[in-house]
């Protein structure tokens, strides 16, 4: 099971994909939604919108 590099919370697939999309595709440090919100100052609703936009565009991180 993957866990957040900052707080240790369990990581879901979309959180892992968004971590890789926002930080670096090859990163091994993955973050939960709460930590991504704090790191990038982006509300959760916007993160969800970003995931849907990347998924619609065919990004393989969000299949």
Structure description:
By secondary structure, the chain is mainly α. Helix content is 49%, strand content 0%. It has three helices and no strands. The radius of gyration is 11 Å and the shape is globular. The chain starts with 12 loop residues before the first helix and ends in a 7-residue tail after the last helix. The model has no long low-confidence stretch (mean pLDDT 96).
Give the secondary structure arrangement, pairings included.
Blueprint: H1 13-22, H2 33-40, H3 44-56
Q: What gross morphology would you assign?
A: globular
In angstroms, what is the radius of gyration? 11 Å
The structure class reads mainly alpha
Query: Could you tell me the mean pLDDT?
Result: 96
Largest sheet: none
- Which runs of at least 5 residues are low in confidence (pLDDT < 50)? none
Termini separation comes to 19 Å
Number of helices: 3
Spell the H/E element sequence: HHH
Question: What is the percent of helical residues?
Answer: 40-55%
Strand tally, please? 0
What is the beta-strand fraction? under 5%
In short, what is this structure?
The protein has 63 residues and is mainly alpha-helical. 49% of the residues lie in helices and 0% in strands.
Keywords summarizing the entry:
single chain; 63 residues; mainly alpha
